[in-house]
């Protein structure tokens, strides 16, 4: 949107709402801020005096910690709240909780919520910025951005990359954010998984090709992104056993050979060793899982910085 | 007081009438139809030039929420909304608190509506006690108390055996069974139509087959038992096809749809709009076209609204938590008139679906302007343009996706047994 170097969004709720320029700016800022994380004194005063609330309605270790560290490295004050996650209307409503928090004048609320679209609901009611740390099966924009940053670091570009995404696409907000973001940046996406986990019309979400066999998706891929299988989500009707899932939709040495020799293996974590990823693949040189986590902090710093109105950052 | 309605286009499909004639009402009944009628002294005269005069409109599927859920709607506010929308008779669903599963609750509804005097209310009793899907309600007593149908609307009868017996038993009492056709195991915890929009929004979908398979089961049970079945709120292409085929082989099945199914699609959910959340959900464009086709070819007998008031606190929520359902009574007529503007139905066909057919399906002595009939009449201004505004709704609740819409056509006069209930301002 508009000039490169100007970020015109008050909220970051979905990569679907951002332009290629917006994404490029966030990634460039993240690249430039990343250097702070390897300093001896890992702190800059950029967001001093800003208050950020991490409001997590779903359990999270990685994402919440990453957002908190990102905020602290920029000198913002952070508070973490994890309301009880009963999704019924019993107790305080989301709207009331958020209005009460708003009365304490935060600058940003970073929220994870189990209901898709909950952030749009809040954005209509609150005057502070909202950053989505994951909503239902809708989007997880910081994950999409950190994945793109990791790919860009490895290949120097996103344009023209062939990215395989394998697993439960239906329930994956990670898949949706990657599809939205990567499509805007010119990548080609190949999705694979059991048909019980493939949502209708997924190819219309972006530059997406649906593959029936995981091997077709991985064939010649630059990136193989494996999604976490969550027993609590998939229940008993979507797949017979973890053993069978692992056999047909898990990534092992053999399947990985179909990808380009320099292909990256990615996973949003936490991984189920021996299910969607064999341990040898998870720990091999091609695995970039820990780079993803590292880049998560930088990307989240960039997101916090830009929703607070920050302009382009020069390389440090 | 007597009433003479002059110069209007009187459309009454029950007697094949469509022409400019006068209509005289004496003592609450239609007395005469003809040209140049003169009113007895002291009669009130309505000049209906440019207006359409029809048998009082009947909405055969509404939720009045009374008793028990009066914070959403009650019989008085609901029947006032009906009158404002041009409806003189309603069939209200039994999912109140307590459920209309006994003569006491049924009588309460009938008596309260009668005392209010804004519209006739003919309740539907429940198929099963407490609508729990376990044992049959006392359908004979329900009928004696004024119920005109039985249904567990909102909760499908899961057991095929129980539905079979309900159809058989209801036939003995002369009651039609209204089916809420939904296989709950297929609908599961879906919150909108299954399809691309659900994929994009990351919301769990309800596939069309959840409706079609239940429609098919109930149609076959109607065929097996020879009992009258009415399928409520038809929303899918498949349900239309199943019912069309069943009618062709003589099954005693009728059905209704609601304006939102021929006006909107699941695209309306974008932005997580909870006023576009209902059950069955808004479907695809292909389904919407099939509903229009079903209306045009007569497969779909009636237009009802599934008027489902909900409090702001139940709608102003995250999408998954918001309740299902939208208002219908005050927007149905102008939305349905769009079918005439779009060439889907003629005006007489529309009147048939909004008055005559519901009366016939439910066995009401309404839906006709033949001399001697109760003078329930709707006088429609088909050209009036207006904007639907929340503050002006008679309903207690405001949960409509049509608020802010520019609409055309409105009831100018709603007349109940010869008495003007609402008149244009």
Architecture blueprint of SSEs:
The complex is a heterodimer of chains A (316) and B (425).
Chain A: H1 20-33, E1 51-56, H2 62-73, E2 77-81, H3 94-102, E3 108-113, H4 118-123, E4 129-135, H5 141-155, E5 162-166, H6 173-184, E6 188-192, E7 208-211, H7 214-218, E8 223-226, H8 231-234, H9 242-249, H10 253-256, E9 264-266, H11 279-282, H12 289-307
Parallel strand pairs in A: 1-2, 1-3, 3-4, 5-6, 5-8, 6-7, 8-9
Chain B: E1 3-12, E2 17-26, E3 29-34, E4 44-47, E5 52-55, E6 57-62, H1 75-85, E7 87-92, H2 103-116, E8 120-125, H3 139-144, E9 149-151, H4 160-173, E10 176-179, H5 184-187, E11 192-193, H6 196-201, E12 205-206, H7 209-225, E13 229-231, H8 237-248, E14 253-257, H9 259-263, H10 285-296, E15 302-303, H11 312-315, H12 332-341, H13 347-362, E16 377-387, E17 406-416, E18 419-423
Parallel strand pairs in B: 1-4, 1-5, 6-7, 7-8, 8-9, 9-10, 10-13, 11-12, 13-14, 14-15
Antiparallel strand pairs in B: 1-2, 2-3, 5-16, 16-17, 17-18
């Amino acid at each position: 949107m508009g000039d490169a170097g100007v970020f015109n969004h008050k909220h970051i709720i979905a990569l679907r709402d951002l332009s290629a320029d917006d994404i490029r700016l966030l990634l460039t800022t993240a690249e430039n801020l990343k250097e702070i994380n390897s300093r001896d004194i890992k702190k800059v005063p950029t967001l001093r005096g800003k208050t950020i609330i991490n409001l997590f309605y779903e359990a999270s270790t990685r994402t919440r910690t990453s957002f908190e560290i990102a905020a602290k490295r920029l000198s913002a004050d952070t508070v973490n709240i994890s309301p009880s996650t009963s999704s019924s209307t019993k107790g305080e409503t989301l709207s009331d909780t958020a209005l009460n928090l708003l009365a304490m004048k935060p600058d940003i609320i970073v929220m994870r919520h189990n209901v898709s679209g909950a952030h749009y609901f809040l954005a209509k009611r609150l005057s502070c910025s909202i950053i989505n740390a994951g909503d239902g099966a809708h989007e997880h924009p910081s994950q999409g951005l950190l994945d793109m940053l990791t790919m860009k670091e490895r290949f120097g570009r996103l344009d023209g990359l062939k990215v395989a995404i394998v697993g439960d696409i239906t329930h994956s907000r990670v898949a949706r954010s990657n599809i939205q973001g990567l499509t805007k940046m010119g990548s080609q996406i190949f999705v694979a998984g059991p048909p019980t986990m493939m949502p209708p019309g997924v190819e219309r979400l972006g530059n997406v090709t649906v593959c029936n066999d995981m091997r077709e998706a991985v064939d010649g891929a630059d990136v193989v992104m494996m999604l976490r299988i969550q027993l609590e989500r998939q229940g008993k009707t979507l797949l017979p056993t973890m053993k069978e899932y692992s056999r047909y939709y898990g990534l092992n040495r053999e399947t990985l050979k179909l990808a380009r020799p320099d292909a990256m293996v990615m996973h949003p974590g936490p991984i189920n060793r021996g299910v969607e990823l064999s341990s040898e693949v998870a720990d091999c040189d091609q695995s970039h899982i820990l780079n993803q986590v590292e880049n998560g902090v930088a990307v989240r710093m960039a997101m916090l910085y830009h929703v607070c109105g920050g302009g382009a950052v020069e390389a440090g | 007081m007597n009433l003479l309605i002059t110069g209007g286009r009187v459309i009454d499909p029950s007697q094949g009438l469509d022409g400019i004639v006068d209509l005289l009402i004496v003592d609450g009944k239609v007395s005469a139809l003809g040209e140049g009628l003169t009113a007895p002294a002291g009669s009130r005269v309505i000049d209906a030039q440019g207006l359409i005069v029809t048998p009082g409109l009947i909405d055969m599927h509404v939720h009045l929420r009374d008793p028990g859920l009066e914070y959403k709607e009650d019989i008085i506010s609901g029947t006032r909304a009906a009158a404002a929308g041009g409806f003189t008779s309603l069939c209200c669903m039994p999912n109140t608190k307590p459920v209309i599963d006994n003569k006491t609750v049924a009588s309460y509804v009938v008596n309260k509506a009668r005392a209010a005097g804004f519209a006739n209310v003919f309740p539907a009793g429940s198929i099963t006690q407490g609508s729990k899907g376990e044992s049959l309600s006392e359908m004979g007593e329900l009928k004696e108390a004024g119920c005109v149908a039985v249904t567990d609307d909102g909760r499908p009868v899961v057991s095929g055996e129980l539905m079979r017996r309900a159809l058989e038993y209801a036939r003995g009492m002369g009651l039609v069974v209204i089916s809420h056709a939904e296989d709950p195991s297929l609908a599961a915890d879906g919150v909108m139509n299954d399809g691309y929009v659900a994929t994009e929004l990351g919301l769990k979908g309800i596939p069309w087959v959840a409706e079609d398979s239940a429609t098919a089961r109930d149609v076959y049970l109607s065929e097996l038992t020879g009992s009258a079945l009415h399928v409520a709120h038809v929303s899918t292409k498949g349900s239309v096809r199943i019912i069309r085929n069943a009618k062709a082989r003589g099954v005693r099945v009728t059905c209704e749809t609601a304006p939102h199914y021929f006006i909107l699609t699941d695209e309306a959910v974008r932005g997580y709009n909870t006023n576009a959340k209902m059950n069955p959900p808004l479907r695809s464009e292909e389904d919407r076209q099939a509903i229009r086709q079903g209306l045009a070819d007569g497969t779909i007998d009636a237009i009802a609204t599934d008027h489902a008031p909900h409090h702001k606190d139940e709608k102003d929520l995250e999408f998954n938590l918001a309740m299902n359902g939208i208002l219908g009574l005050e927007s149905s007529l102008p939305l349905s008139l769009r079918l005439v503007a779009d060439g889907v139905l003629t005006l007489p066909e529309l009147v048939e679906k909004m008055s005559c057919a519901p009366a016939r399906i439910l066995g009401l002595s309404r839906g006709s302007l033949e001399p001697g009939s109760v003078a329930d009449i709707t006088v429609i201004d088909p050209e009036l343009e207006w904007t639907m505004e929340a503050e002006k709704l008679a309903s207690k609740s405001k949960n409509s996706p049509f608020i802010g819409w520019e609409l055309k056509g409105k009831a100018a006069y709603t007349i109940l047994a010869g008495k003007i209930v609402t008149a244009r301002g």
